[in-house]
Amino acid sequence: MSPDILWHTLESADALQRLDSSESGLSEAEVTLRRRQHGANELDAEPHSRWPAVLLRQFRNLLMIILLLAAGLSVFLGDWVESVAIVAIVLMSVILGFVQEFRAERAIAALREMAAPTARVLRDGHELRIPARELVPGDIVLIVTGDIVAADGRILEASNLKADEAPLTGESVPVDKSTGALSDTTLPIGDRSNMLYAGTAVTYGRGRMLVTATGMASEFGKVAGLVQTVKAGLTPLQVQINRIGRWLGVLALLVIVLITLTGLQRQQGLFEMFLFGIALAVAVVPEALPAVITISLALGVQRMARRHALVRHLPAVETLGSTSVICADKTGTLTRNEMTARRIYAGGQNISVSGSGYATEGVFLAEDGGKGITEPLAATLRAAALASDARLIEEQGAMVVRGDPTEAALVVAAAKAGLDKGRLEQECPRIAEQPFESAARRMTTLHRCGDSRVAYIKGAPEAIVAICSKWLTDDGEAALEADHAQAIYQSARNMAGEALRVIALARRGDVTLEECDKDLVFLGLIGMSDPPRAEVRQAVATCKSAGIRPIVMTGDHPDTARAIAQELDILDKGEVITGPELSAMDEQALARRVTDIDVYARVDPAHKLRIIEAWQKHGKVVAMTGDGVNDAPALKRADVGVAMGIRGTDVSRAAASMILTDDNFASIVGAVEEGRVIFANIRKYLMYLLSSNIGEIGLIAGATLAGLPLPLTAVQILYINLATDGFPALGLSVDPPDENLMTQVPRAREEGVFSRPTLLLMLIGGFWSTLVNFSLFKWVLESGRGLSEAMTMTFISLVLIQFFKAYSFRSVAVSVFRRPFANKWLNLAIVWELILLSLIVYLPILHEPFGTFALSVRDWGLAGAVAFTVVPVLEIAKYALTKSSST
Question: Which of 220, 361, 792, 814 has the most beta carbons within 10 angstroms of its beta carbon?
């Protein structure tokens, strides 16, 4: 097809004909052909790095390049053995860095795939939800409020349809959409009211569109720079780590200059000191830190995904660990979101409804024992079905729902009375609608029933009864007196007190949509149960033990919200307030009272934003759940915005930093736990790495200042850097969580990666390593043994003390002797490094390059005993720090 077709000038039928499509959509065979022709519906993105490119990037490190030059210089000077050793260690370090970066890149790519948007299409007349990248020109896409438009399209059907086109046109006000052809061929994109464009958002109504362009052929594709994924910046933690790395680099440079100048003053060779200085720089500068941080975050995010929490932005992982308040919606998050009608109030009678789930079998039993379907009951159920968008579809012998679960419960209740939604819509087709508005708390649909028009309205009881002047009785319509209204309100309160969600139904004949805000005829109430999720009660208990405050925010009746909150132990000593009460408070009053409120009922999205800001004024880190278009501002304002993956809109998911794929509160708590684990493990790795560096620098600086020979060779230093910064450190980055992790209070918002216990343990471990290894080196020399033996024993002791510290640093509070070998990856890493260490000591071919000597069992015992002394020292330090923090 020609890319120059002006789709907005064509009638709907002509557009369908041009694309060889139909109202029932394309066939799968045709979709396959078109996908080959047009490609995937996605913008051209920067391709993933291939493995050779990732490997070559490891050589961009200046220190690696200098080491390779030093190896070449060694060859030139005839020192083949040392040059081979340097090259081997550099290559091993490069391979380790390659594995880290390649794995992290693939992990992040997998996350992008999981986060891919979806679209609802008609294929062969059947409604399907597919990844948006699979759309092709000619597809029929169903669109509703909250969808992000996935491709360009000609609108075929529109019901109060509006779109936010600001990302494409800059127009800040939502644009009304229609279906009629436009004759002006020069209309700019922003004025083409019968078109929808990729990347824009549906803010109101619903409709269908014919896909006219996908991928780079769409309007967004033509200006792809506007929406191409910006290269991900560093997370706050990575920025902090890089700052630490630069500080360490400066400090290391000063030490290296001091040691090199001292060596030259002692008539040691220039090349020897140059190589030694570079080796020390490699050991001290934590060049692997960014890669380890990235892989820790990426793998942690994948673990979260397995727990049904899909993180869209890496900084959210860091923030999750310090979450102190979770503001959760009730429906579907705390409850199962499987609504079933249980009670109906119609014609002045309370009626029980049997049956469960989406099965259409059930009995209506009135309080007087009658089982018949009265006119008020039938009218209530007819209104419930017609004013709902949900549909029941039979798949593989079972009834499944397409649409909102609350509306599904209404449709099922009507079906139990023999009122099929499909037949009702044939008798009374919908001709207009007013979608649900949080401010009015009601939805209106207008139908043509024979020669008349009838409006059906559903919403909150207090919102509906307030605009009713009549009610339907067994004898027909009658004036709605005050005592009748009070009886309706009391029935609604009784239902809400049983933890039922209550919907009121009303109607009015021969009106327009604009006239449906008064003089309605009240039909009835339907109370639906949505039982709490079984796992949420334990998740709430976990929150409380972890110092996290769960808060309920819902549009439901306060009695319903109170009942659910009490059942889940959320409502303890706090208050339950409503949206109107919240509106009556100014910001100062809310900030004073927010800590005393556990449940907010009848709230709208604007209220949610105020609640979040009030908590943040108290210095709390707030996670908030949302699913609607209007929740987007609050989701963005929250420290961690959590969108619903099942019932959430595309707009809410785009605004959130995390998506729940199961809409479950327990998944938020699981994600918080993973966030704490990730941050704790990064701390462990950093504490271990820097403590090791302090030990190395301290040992060499001490020997230099004491006038002793250098205690390590350049190759030994390089090897220690590889051994300790390599697999053992990676093992720590995936350490299992402490048993008491979710009994600790949340980390303060302003607390950095170095807490007081972390910093003190790191310094104590580094200084003790310096002290004992320097003492060992000096003692061996003074005992009359050769320099090679002294260096070998010091080398062995220094490596072993790093390994002992790796186990001790698995926790800053828990003893190393409690579950000492719980980290299988660390165990494997240590065993592997011990094998390599033994080969370096005992293989004669490695003695010359590494400057080692075959030690006796007694020497190993002595070096091991010296290294082990760090364990009781750190145990005493942990005990003292834990005791001081508890007093």
Answer: 792
